[in-house]
Amino acid sequence: MRYGIEAVNVYAGLARIGVAELFAGRGLDPARLENLAMRARSVGLPFEDPVTNAVNAAKPVVDALDPAGRDAIEVLVTSTESGLDLSKSVASYVHEYLGLSRNCRLLEVKQACYAATGALQLAAGYLASGVSPGAKALVIATDVALVDARAQYAEPATGHGAAAVLVGDDPRVLALDLGAFGCYSYETMDSARPTPQFDIADVDRSLFAYLDCLANSFADYRSRVEGADFLTTFDHLALHTPFAGLVKAAHRKMMREAGARGDAIEADFQRRVAPSLVYPSLVGNLCSGSVYLALASLLDHAGIEAGTRIGLYSYGSGCSSEFFTGTVDAASVAAVKRYRIGAHLARRRELSFDEYAALLPDTLATLVPVPERVVDLDRYESFLGGRDGGRPELLVHTRTKDYQRMYEWR
Predict the structure, then answer these.
(1) Contact 182, 222 (CB under 8 A)
(2) In b/e form, how buried is each residue of 104-124, taking b as 16+ CB within 10 angstroms?
(3) Cα–Cα distance between 178 and 2 in angstroms, integer?
(4) Separation of alpha carbons 132 and 145, rounded Å
(5) Residues 210-267: pLDDT tens digits?
(6) What's the pTM?
(7) Local confidence band at 389 (pLDDT 50, 70, 90 cut-offs)
(8) pLDDT per residue over 136-193, tens digit each?
(9) How far from each other are the two terminal CA atoms of the chain, in whole angstroms?
(10) In a 3-state reduction of DSSP, which class is residue 201?
(11) What H or E segment, with its residue span, contains residue 139?
(12) Among 37, 99, 192, 222, which residue is least crowded by beta carbons within 10 Å?
């Protein structure tokens, strides 16, 4: 039996702002735009939160299953840095609005941008154990952005949304190489979310930790997989993407350490890596969903042949990382294209800097626990309209009563 990713879909919100527009509005140095290699980023709206993002990413995946397939989802894991409660998990809300079986394990996990990969690997191991034949697991990486001018150059790179990954024994998207992985983790304070209203980051420490973990998780992978070589083993690469420019720097470092020089490095980057950066450069850092956004981008933009092996790298601040692999083919391309991720990204409404700045006070408060709250959806009709233009039905946060969040389909 093969196990891995059966389906993957991404929800990246209804609004975006151009990175150049954001640079100009904040007075950031335009010379640094090239290093970011970002074109746009998704922007959260006051009726969006980690529950709505998760449900809106996963609903098309669940709806594509027949009743038996939906009932086969025995494990639901939400990975998030944007928990709504110190006790109650986001997963319980998500389970309810996806209409999943009540005979289902519900978990919420946290390890910064690595958590979804940890959940994916544990789910795949559970399924491969054979203790519940035919079972599936649904892993949803979901987060909101809590950045403003204080974040400086991190603000233009920070995304918003969720990636839903269905794991099972029919891995049409990615068949995992079970047992082929390498991990590397240690304590470092490179970023944190100490309150539900803002993030902090030590940018330099985070960049060095990302590069350090890539080299060392791949070294651990190589110790487990005989003959593994960064230059030749993988037809394509999909890496966690805080911003596209960092991925290019990481690729260059690994290539140099493997003995490549000069133009060969750039040519390899364009062939093996660049297709994975199309969507991340339009969305921003999707936290633990980032590597799966990169995988979807790769499958939508690279020429994939039968038996193509992908090397994937997942990194989470704090820090934990994993390098792992799997195979894809033409059926993988078709399995991703059915969700029309690119079309959904193109449909996001473009914000001016002034519109973006006006939204920030409410969006930055989306995780703050309050006893009562009402969201005036009429204020956001320009975002929620357009069902005739192909927008799917979406879950939105409408109000909070006695600390309980309530949602509606729009």
Answers:
(1) yes
(2) bebebbbbbbbbbbbbbbbbb
(3) 9
(4) 37
(5) 999 999 999 999 999 999 999 999 999 999 999 999 999 999 999 999 999 999 999 9
(6) 0.97
(7) low
(8) 999 999 999 999 999 999 999 999 999 999 999 999 999 999 999 999 999 999 999 9
(9) 40
(10) strand
(11) strand 136-143
(12) 99
Residue of 48, 81, 155, 322 with catalytic role:
81
Q: What are the residues whose beta carbons fall under 8 Å from the beta carbon of 98, sequence distance 6 or more?
A: 55, 58, 59, 62, 76
Q: Let me know if 81 is a catalytic residue.
A: yes
Q: CA 103 to CA 47: how far, in whole Å?
A: 30
The Cβ of residue 235 has, within 10 Å, a number of other Cβ atoms equal to 18
Q: How far apart are CA 394 and CA 410, in angstroms?
A: 5
- The alpha carbons of the chain give a radius of gyration, in whole angstroms, of 20
pLDDT for residue 18: 98
- 3-state SS track over 292-347: HHHHHHHHHHCCCCCCEEEEEEEEECCCEEEEEEEEECHHHHHHHHCCCHHHHHHC
Spatial separation of the C-alpha atoms in residues 236 and 222, rounded to whole Å? 17
403: left (phi over 0), alpha (psi -120 to 50) or beta: left
Reduce the DSSP state of residue 10 to 3 states and report it: strand
Residues near 317 by beta carbon (within 8 Å), at least 6 away in sequence: 112, 113, 188, 190, 191, 192, 201, 206, 209
**Alpha carbon of 100 to those of 73, 76, 272, 325: distances in Å?**
7, 9, 38, 30
The first and second tokens of residue 404, run together, are 């309980």
pLDDT tens-digit map of 297-336: 999 999 898 889 999 999 999 999 999 999 999 999 999 9
What is the amino acid identity at position 340? R
Token readout for 74 is 């025995």
| 235 neighbors 272 (Cβ within 8 angstroms) | yes
- The SS3 assignment for 183 reads strand
What is the layout of strands, in order, in the sheet containing 349-350?
Answer: 40-43, 15-18, 349-350
Q: Which residue has the tokens 């203790």?
A: 131
- Counting Cβ atoms within 10 Å, is residue 399 exposed (0-12), middle (13-18) or buried (19+)? middle
Give the SS3 label for residue 326: strand
Mean pLDDT throughout 273-297?
98
Q: Check residue 219 and give its pLDDT.
A: 98
CB 365 within 8 A of CB 35: no
Which domains, and CATH codes, for the chain? 4-409 (3.40.47.10)
249: exposed, middle or buried (Cβ count in 10 Å: 0-12, 13-18, 19+)? middle
Annotated catalytic residue 160:
no
Q: Which two tokens stand for residue 1?
A: 């039996």
